[in-house]
Design brief:
three-stranded antiparallel β-sheet, DNA-binding, globular, homodimer
DNA sequence: CAGAATCCCCTCAGATACTG
DNA sequence: CAGTATCTGAGGGGATTCTG
């Protein structure tokens, strides 16, 4: 019913657990890039299964690109925010601005305080 | 873990089924106000249980206010978008702008086309 | 290193029935 | 009219194990 609406779909995968933190972590990386294991360690507590799932979704949505470097072993895989992904970070900034304006009382998250968040 | 982050919480209830459509429907009402039954009929397919749940959530988040008129019977209950709710509509507009810029291919939703959406 | 495959639990949402 | 109560099925996410 509303599941064909792009806006709703967007909000829907943004709301899935870890997605925002993954995007934020990629954003912080050099060239907005991070490796699988870097992400896994930065996001203490996420399982490989969920991280892989989220990255596939984001790749499918065009928010992230995956590049495999198989020239040596073990294989290196890098994930990078696309242009659309960077634009999405601005959207998240808009949400943060709203939250700070209207929800000041509980503005902290598990990783850092919104007021000092890189966003 | 990330569940204490206001931004994440916001995205999370926005993503719950029907929430966006409820906000949109209130937005369209006179004075951004609608009655329970009006909402129910406008959002064909929603159950009373879910509608009541969503409205409680939105009320709790300060996005909607509830006003009961018990002067006559049956009781009239009206829901109105608050200032913060109206500000949130702007946030959703931002998401729509992103969607139209990067997801043009599937820009329609069950109710109407994004390009003619009131947002 | 970067995953895929399984199993299990828990929340979400639909259907249905009842009430002040 | 505007809800509440209960039950059920489907999907999300954690833990663990295995592999190219």
């Amino acid at each position: 019913m509303q599941d064909v609406c792009t806006v709703n779909q967007t909000v829907r995968y943004l709301a899935r657990k870890w997605t925002l933190l993954i995007i934020l972590e990629l954003y912080k990386g050099q060239g907005h890039t991070r490796r699988f294991t870097e992400l896994k360690e930065a996001l203490g507590g996420i399982t490989q299964k969920v991280l892989a799932e989220r990255l596939r979704e984001l790749e499918h949505e065009g928010i992230v690109t995956r590049r495999v470097d198989a020239t040596d072993f073990p294989v290196r895989t890098e994930y990078t925010l696309t242009e659309s992904g960077l634009a999405l970070v601005d959207v998240v900034r808009g949400i943060k601005a709203w939250a700070l304006a209207w929800k000041v009382e509980n503005a902290t998250c598990g990783n850092q305080d919104c007021s000092v968040c890189v966003l």
